[in-house]
Amino acid sequence: NNVVLVNLTTGALEAIPTNARASHMIAVTADAARGFTANVIDHSVSEIDLVGKRFVRSFTVPAQPEGIAVTPDGKEVWVGSNQTGAVTIISTGSGQVSHTITGALFPYRLGSSPDGRLMAVVDGRGNKLHIADVASHRFTGAIELTSPRAVVIQSDNRTAYVTLAAGLLAVVDLQELRV
Question: Most buried residue, 41, 63, 103, 121, by CB count within 10 Å?
Fold first, then answer.
């Protein structure tokens, strides 16, 4: 129910309430000014001012949000619903849901490309890595993987590292959609 900031030099801890239960994952803007938590039990996303160290607001999303990412510019938060399979896109400017993408079974983890053009969506039950175009808000491709669990897109905006349940790491070419 908190975001905990850790001062790596002193070891000091500071908790910032999310005003929600089961705040599980956090996505942080590229400038580290804002964090967004997926709150599994309360079906919401909390916005946290990491500089001012305070709760800002919350957004209602479909049931059991867990996977979450924010575009590097902080303009959109993408959140996956474990219950519905939908990926909900929130405009941080308006505070409203701007788009919903369907087609995944279990959007468990999400990752934005550093340039903000792509969003990778790990579909843990569908055994796929879906790739979405951020501008059009739609899936543009997918690659089959065995039990994918998490994703990070490298600074080249072309390579994704996807952990697999078997303790393996898949290196995925996002342009060719191949391991």
Answer: 121
